[in-house]
Amino acid sequence: MKVKGLTQAEADLRLKKDGLNQVPEPEFSFWKEFAGKLWNLSAWILEAALLLECALGKWIQSLFVLLMLLFAAYNGATQKKKSRKVLSSISQQLTPVVAVLRDDRWQKIDSKYLVVGDIVNLQKGDILAADIDLLDGNLTLDESSITGEAKNVHKKAGATAFAGTTVMDGEALGRVSATGTNSRSGQTINLINTSAAPGHLQQLLTKIIYYLCLLDGVLTVILLIAAVIRGENILEMLPFLAMMFIASIPVAMPSTFTLSNSFEATRLSKEGVLTSDLTGIQDAANLNLLLLDKTGTITENKTAVASFANFSKLSDEEVLALTSLAIDQRNQSVIDLALMDFLQEKKIPVKEAEAFTPFTSSQGYSEGRGEGHDVKLGSVKQFSKIDPAISEQMAAVDLSLGRSVGILLDDRLAGIFITKDKVRADSKAALAELVKRGIKPVMLTGDNQKTAASVAEEVGLTGKVISISDFKEGVKAEDLAGIADVLPEDKLDMVKYFQKAGYIVGMTGDGVNDSPALKQAEVGIAVSNAADVAKKSSKMVLLDEGLSPIVKILDAGHRVYQRMTTWSLTKLARTAELTMLLTFSYLIFGYLPMALNAMVIYTIMNNMVTMMIGTDKTHITYKPENWDMGKLAKIAFSLAGAWTIIGFAFVSALTKAGVNHDQVGTMVYVFLVMSAMMIVLITRTKRFFWQSAPSKPVASVQIADILLTCLLALLGIAMPAIGIKELLTPLAVAFLAAILIDLVYQPVMKNK
Asked: Which residues cross the membrane (predicted)?
């Protein structure tokens, strides 16, 4: 169909008049988010404790609990705002591109520059960025984003396709009829995933609350039994019991996770990787199998014709000229570009088709009609079903040299192109780095087995290369270097197969048919030239070609993992130390060696420093990680046990020395704050804590916490005052205890 698009000058004028084809996202409501943070499990526990403290007339404690509740809500809303800002900046780089006819030539532009009247080409995998009146062709559309209906809709010339819908099949020409706020969807079209399921780290929150509440529950029962045996008033125990549960709540955990993921997403965006789903970063640490597309990832996204064999009675020039009828001129694939370059090199004139059908993976070829001929360009395997004589003619062609592309002229084999992808210069080193990190790379390609084996050998992949037809139950990833003859539809089955076998699977892809596999994989990675719907289905999007950016994703995942491991260990250890020390001291000595006000201040200070762990320095490990909550709990409670023994000995010594119970309470508060800071330093590194400095934010908050602790203790604010000697004693005991514990802890951890 002959159509005429706008000139660039006309488009510029309309763009100036109507504005960009986008609608600002709804403004983030801080107070709405703040209110939402007051309605969750952690908030409910705090709110229940607040009501209990008020009912018992403990107004000072009530004030501190209220401050904790408001802090948790304010901090959570603040970090959410920062996260939204990060994703918003990334989404600007994930705006779809569209093929537009301007100045009588097809070009690809950012969809936000579309204007009314633009002629666009739509094809499978596109996400529409404006309302478009179809002029020619047929489309199958997924309109669930605007109608909520999952059933696909079929549309032809004369119908309108709406912004936000996805082209599931077909190709069509259309004219833009409405952009921005005037489009039916009236929303910004980007590829950010805002409705992803929680990652492993978010699920960890529930487990940590469970472990801590279980510990508090056991200690509560012990205390109540002891109080009954001693004939004490149980009501007097309630404020302390409430404070134990308050101290157990991981107030800063959601904020720490958000901060760490956002921090890494920003870092990755500067390194050529865009994050469309923050959970993709944290899951990368667990990755142990990576299924890799050959073209555009291992090889350069550029294909060249290595040889041409003519099987017709026509001259080479005549066959090549007719071949141009079946080349897609609107949305050129790497094969189309390679053939066009070859024709230009041979100075063959390009013919315009009277009718053209683009390539689809299900059909296996493109088709053009003109000059009295029907020309098909595509898979030799598919063509063998049309022309049975192909197998005999193909015997003279060395298919191991590269990928074969056949030409059928009036349903008879006319020629064979052998095309070859160039291996990227960084592929071999990048694959070696992946293997070094405990990840098994397996190459996927539509090429034949011989071609795939040649590429696998060139880049150093170990194992055998099999055809997809030989991929059967029992195949192990460790035995494979690659899988050949793969169709996009096969990839989902392979991802599911390996997941069922126990692997954490990463997957790279670019086409619409790759989308299910990208979505199924724990870490779906869309390559730089991927279709919009593939980017929408993935968690990570590469801006640069090649494998090197994938290594950066792994590094980011390990950094998040290390920070969250530190957070989990410190939260479990500090809380267990506090509750066990106070419980056993009460049972043995008959009093609580810490003021309730001090308990709340201690909890707030700990949340401040642990929140900063999201920005801490880390070390990169070279093996896939695993969130083993049982192992974390054992390590944390072992640390807590050691600190509790030392703390109990300290309380015992003070009690025997006849130190006033009020002063003991303040000194224990100082000891617990100092020990909490030391636990962070011990668990954050694989070396002794004095050999590795934390990040500036972590160190700054730790120093501020210790200075504030000293100030409160000396001035007697919210607790009985103590002197310099009484202040230095618990600080020194905690510091020496940290050295002793770390001398045992680090050698044990190195053997884990």
From this structure: 59-77, 208-229, 241-260, 635-654, 666-683, 703-722, 728-745
